[in-house]
Amino acid sequence: MKVLQYTAAGVLQEVQISSTLDAINYSFERFILNSSQTAAGVLELVTEIVPDSDTVAIAGLTLIKGTDYQVMTNALGNSEIQFLPPMLPGGQIPIEAGDEILVRYAYLPINPMLEFRKEQVILSGIDVANEYIDLSDEALELSTKVYLNGFELTEGQDYTVLLGTGTTRINFINQLASGGLLEIEEGDQVGAQYTIAL
Predict the structure, then answer these.
(1) Which of 38, 86, 145, 189 is a good FRET partner for 71, with 20 to 30 A between their CA atoms?
(2) For the chain, how many helices (H) and strands (E)?
(3) Is this model's pTM higher than 0.70 or not?
(4) Among the CATH numbers 2.60.40.200, 3.40.50.300, 3.30.457.10, 2.60.40.740, which is that of 114-197?
């Protein structure tokens, strides 16, 4: 499957990824911002997008993810395009009511054979010493999101996912591992969201 991703240099490129999720759909939507969206600096989509599959443009100019906008998931499980300071009122290129926003993204169709799961774990001393936790069920590949004390972590940079054991093992690495700048501690709260096959 091919998705659009930003490189570390902020260049948009199409890359091939492998996934057990073989039914991904793509959408290209056009929005006209209203005054409440402009004031809030948020554009809500009606689905949750596949991570790093988004491209956002305004007035024909492609925005830079992480500089001009970020994508977050709200309490309803829908993705939101949240505009960052350069795009907010008073910024260098502020959004305004009536602006046309084009959004391209990938999303997973609703599938009755899949189920969404959420778990919260308060790290014990054993979890910290092991530098991993096991979730209750085995997640589908590329469906896991992990949060530490409310902040979303990055797979491959902050943690790895081990599947194939009937559970999902989250291994904390790099700065979150023992001796790291932000090493995990007993009492830290880990949240996980993932999809399982029924």
Answers:
(1) 189
(2) 2, 16
(3) no
(4) 2.60.40.740
